[in-house]
Design a protein that fits this description.
79 residues, alpha+beta, 2 helices, two-stranded antiparallel ribbon
Length: 79
């Protein structure tokens, strides 16, 4: 599939957000990738208050920050 954007950068940005959203949406966060211990919430989204970062109390592993597409787009539009 070939998508032609021309000079429309907003379409490119939205496509990148959509790809990141799909990749992150399917990541499970119920157990640590390193030791298997249950993860605890480390950080919440400032827009929707949903968890976006988790940590393991046993091995101190921190997950990557999850970006909510709706919240990220709202921040761009409001900025």
């Amino acid at each position: 599939m070939v998508v032609k954007y021309g000079n429309d950068w907003s379409a490119r940005v939205l496509t990148v957000f959509n790809i990141l959203f799909l990749m992150i949406s399917f990541m499970r966060n119920d157990s640590c990738r390193k030791c298997g211990t249950e993860l605890k919430i480390k950080e919440k989204c400032t827009t929707c208050d949903e968890p976006i970062k988790f940590t393991c109390n046993k091995c101190h592993f921190d997950t990557d920050e999850q970006i909510h597409q709706r919240c990220a787009l709202q921040g761009i539009i409001c900025a």
